[in-house]
Amino acid sequence: MTTPNPDAGHDSSGFSYVMVGITGAIVWDIVNSINAEYRLIRRWSLSTLVYFLSRSATLVAFVLMSIGNTSQVQDCTGSLHARTAMFLLSVSTTSLLFLFRVHAIYYGNRYAAGIFIFLWTCVISGSVAIALAKGSNNGKAAPSDSCSETAVNIITLVITSSILPMALDFIIFLAVTWRLFQNAHVTLTLKHGLKVMMFGAFLPAFSRALLQDSQIYFLCNVVLEIVTLIAFTTPIGTGLSFYTGTSVLVHLAVRNLMACRVYRHTKLQLGSRDVVSSEQSSMAFGAPGTDLESKRETSQDRDVQS
Fold it and tell me: Where does the chain cross the membrane (predicted)?
């Protein structure tokens, strides 16, 4: 995806401060999670590779963004291409982490897998479309100028970089919640159903942890999505306003940080001996009482990634 260009004047300095702040937050999260990530390396899998690609791409994208807006860049065009590639990789791998998650929970359901793969492809296609629409504001400008893209269509930017990923997250959240809802150890009534869906009551510990992680992730993204839409409708400036540009980028960064947090939590909890021995035997990611429990226990070890 492309990266927005702030409005002129004081907005340019403010935009640079925001980029540096986001980069610092990403670095802090990596340092704070170093022990957990070392444990992830010891449980290597395809999803672990995607996780580290997502982390690395997001960090590199915002580092390049910060450099391009705070210092001289001799090869602006090359910097923009690298930045765009990193944002594309960040968006696609972040969404892919949740594709792994829903695939594991709906293991063996080809229709569900096909639907979610199609939705993930739509998100990637949107990001590629906005990347192809970008341009450079100083490919031949003086070295002292900042290196940032020219304005692209604001509606396209908001839809492809914010709304489409959010729509995918919302659908996955509903799908995961519904599947976990079926694991409740209680006769389902309206009252009990609300308790299960809102608080994870009557669920096994691992199912409850999955649900609560999904709720935290979704709540954070909803708040940021609302902020982005408010900024989008704010009649300040023309083209890419400072408020819309920064809110979109903050949303992308937080979405990646939260997705990685959910992945670490679920992956490490799934690898816990206590969880594996006490919870997996009582938890089948399908309708309760089926004879596929042992098969799905194996799939959880192999596929359940957050």
Answer: 15-34, 46-68, 80-100, 112-133, 153-181, 193-210, 216-243
